[in-house]
Design goal:
alpha+beta; Heat Shock Protein 90; Ribosomal Protein S5, domain 2; Four Helix Bundle (Hemerythrin (Met), subunit A); 3 domains; five-stranded mixed beta sheet; 22 strands; about 35% helix
Length: about 650
């Protein structure tokens, strides 16, 4: 490469627009911590120049008469501390060099500088400020100036397609720039060459490994091939081929290509369980290539874990920290490439951008649609996804109420009828029993404990299905969900069971003729209620039980008992709602209590009442409220029976 240090023809000296001078001052004084951005911006500009030539050559083929393939070449010179970015795109005239590199469009200039200063202030106060500030570059068309973060001097040589003139632009970023004619022998045949004379602390950017890292991170999929060359060597090698898998038609991509891309974008070794590839067209255009993994990542439930979807704008990588998908879809990996989003908005501005919100809604809806299709067409494949990510998807029932109806279609449950399989809410509603008006569920910390709950006995006797909810999020969404298909959700441990209207299943035990009568049961209930006092909110008989003598339930409008326990563990609360003790009027023990009460043997009945209360607490996973008293009464009853 010929030297650009001296200009043989007269040069015009220009002062930067005032706002540009201030901007360059900010750049030089390192407001932005992520200096990699400069190369992304120069590559983006070069790709735009190539795309512009491609478009202009359609109507004027002479502009690309040589037919040379469009490309970007990055040349590194570690010894000379130089980095050169060249393209054979449309190039610039003298006036375009002055206009494009000497001024910023008035609209947005002040806003950029205000945000840049705000980023600088934030950087002074906390580490994250500078990082966010780096995303401001390019927001208002100032990406080129990021070169001065790493360069003491920038030399731009450009020749407009179809022109016999070439021009050179030179600046050290100190307030002025020069423009002069360039020797055609020392200029590109067409396009632009930018030479950065790197500062001492930026010399690593002239190293091959650094260049390749930055290109692979930010510009691996720009629509123009990128080649790398070392200064003084004729040979060059390809860094990127100008392709993006998501830009291809789905029919043109093989399963192997999808698998390879999934491994690159996700960093995982498993095969994707579901691939979602499409292009949205209309008022907002974007391409989507997403994958649902088949294996659960180790940090899936880490509160600090962020989504793993990469956001691109016109094939330029922008960020993988933007919340494109809702939290319940954080297991999804892949890329979304927008045609319309502005480059380099700050993360906060990008997050609230209405175009991003449109993309978010569209992509989220498509994920739900594709999961629903898979659940219908290949239930076995879908259940593998559900078993890996079901608890996360259910978070959407609580956090994303607008999507609740769609989520209900793909959510699966264990139940008293599911066995080793899973049930959908549609399956549940299809099997409703005569006079059943609610969807019943039980909360527990494990499927085994849920299935062993005495609260299920009356439902089993009537063959009424009960959902077994054992994930922590279940306790939250059932409190806010209004129901499904017009059927409200009802905990089996909350309020009255209202099972009298549902007939007993064939083969279920019939009422015991030796059971206590209604008046006797009422007497036992009243006595136990008086005995327990303010330990309980109420004592009542119930059809909820079939085999056990007693159980505890929450009041009709109180919180579910399992939810209360969950809150107590997370918040250290101890102010539980007083439970209701329900007695099984068909149980022999209740009949025996009625007989002893009639015989005025109230001491034994009192002990039995306290023991039933303690036993019910144990079955609920709690200790008796007074373990010493519980043990004393148990010994007393055993002595009475054994002596």
């Amino acid at each position: 490469m010929s030297s650009t240090d001296t200009i043989e023809q007269p040069a015009e000296s220009h002062a930067f627009q005032a706002e540009v001078a201030r901007l360059l001052h900010l750049m030089v004084h390192s407001v932005y911590s992520n200096r990699d951005i400069f190369l992304r911006e120069l590559i983006s500009n070069a790709a735009d120049a190539c795309e512009k030539l491609r478009w202009l050559a359609v109507s004027d083929p002479a502009l690309n008469a040589d037919g040379a393939p469009l490309e970007i070449v990055i040349e590194a010179d570690p010894a000379g501390r130089r980095l050169t970015v060249s393209d054979n795109g449309v190039g610039m005239t003298r006036q375009e060099l002055v206009d494009n590199l000497g001024t910023i469009a008035r609209s947005g200039t002040r806003a950029f500088l205000e945000q840049a200063n705000a980023a600088k202030d934030a950087a002074a106060g906390q580490d994250g400020g500078a990082k966010d500030g780096s995303r401001l570059i390019g927001q208002f068309g100032v990406g080129f100036y990021s070169a001065f973060m790493v360069a003491a001097r920038v030399v731009v040589t450009s020749r407009r397609a179809g022109s016999n003139e070439a021009w050179r632009w030179i600046s050290d970023g100190q307030g002025t720039f020069e423009v002069a004619p360039a020797d055609l022998a020392d200029a590109p045949a067409r396009g632009t060459r930018i030479v950065l004379e790197l500062t001492e602390d930026a010399k690593d950017y002239a190293e091959e490994t650094t260049v390749e890292r930055v290109v692979k991170t930010y510009s691996a999929h720009v629509p123009v091939p990128i080649r790398f060359a070392k200064a003084g060597e004729a040979a060059s090698r390809e860094l990127t081929d100008g392709s993006a898998l998501w830009a291809k038609a789905k029919s043109e991509v093989t399963k192997e290509e999808y698998a390879e891309f999934y491994g690159n974008v996700s960093g995982q070794w498993d095969e994707p369980a579901l691939t979602i590839h499409y292009r949205a067209e209309g008022r907002t255009e974007y391409s989507v290539l997403l994958f649902v993994p088949s294996m659960k990542p180790f940090d899936l439930f880490d509160p600090a874990r962020k989504g793993r979807v990469k956001l691109y704008v016109r094939r330029i990588f922008i960020s993988d920290e933007v919340e494109i998908l809702p939290a319940w879809a954080r297991f999804v990996r892949g890329v979304i490439d927008s045609e319309d989003l502005p480059l380099n908005l700050s993360r906060e501005l990008l997050q609230s951008n209405p175009l991003l919100e449109t993309i978010r809604k569209g992509v989220t809806g498509r994920i739900l649609t594709e999961l629903g299709k898979l659940a219908t067409s290949d239930a076995e494949a879908y259940l593998r996804i559900w078993e890996a990510f079901g608890p996360v998807i259910k978070e959407g029932l609580y956090e994303d109420p607008d999507r609740r109806d769609d989520l209900f279609k793909i959510i699966r449950f264990k139940s008293t009828k599911s066995g080793d399989g899973w049930r959908s809410l549609a399956d549940y509603v299809a099997d409703l029993k005569e006079n059943q008006t609610r969807i019943h569920y039980v909360l527990a910390d494990s499927p085994e404990r849920a299935a062993a709950s005495p609260h299920l006995e009356g439902f089993r006797a009537r063959d009424v299905e009960v959902l077994l909810l054992t994930d922590p999020v279940d306790a939250f969404w059932v409190r806010t969900a209004l129901g499904y298909d017009g059927k409200p959700f009802q905990s089996v441990t909350q309020g009255a069971a209202d099972l009298d209207a549902i007939p007993l299943a064939e083969g279920a035990p019939k009422p015991d003729a030796a059971a206590a009568g209604a008046a006797e049961v009422a007497a036992v209930v009243a006595f136990v209620k008086e005995t327990l006092g303010d330990r309980v909110a109420d004592v009542r008989s119930s059809t909820r039980l079939a085999e056990s003598p007693a159980c505890l339930v929450a009041p009709d409008f109180g919180p579910d008992k399992e939810f209360e326990k969950l809150m107590s563990r997370s918040q250290g609360r101890s102010d539980f709602t007083k439970p209701i003790l329900e007695l099984n009027p068909q149980h022999p023990l209740v009949a025996a209590m009625a007989r002893h009460l009639a015989d005025t043997d109230r001491t034994l009945v009192e002990d039995a009442g306290f023991l039933l209360f303690g036993q019910a607490r144990i079955l609920d996973g709690e200790a008796p409220d007074d373990p010493a008293d519980f043990g004393r009464r148990l010994v007393h009853v055993m002595q009475k029976l054994m002596v």
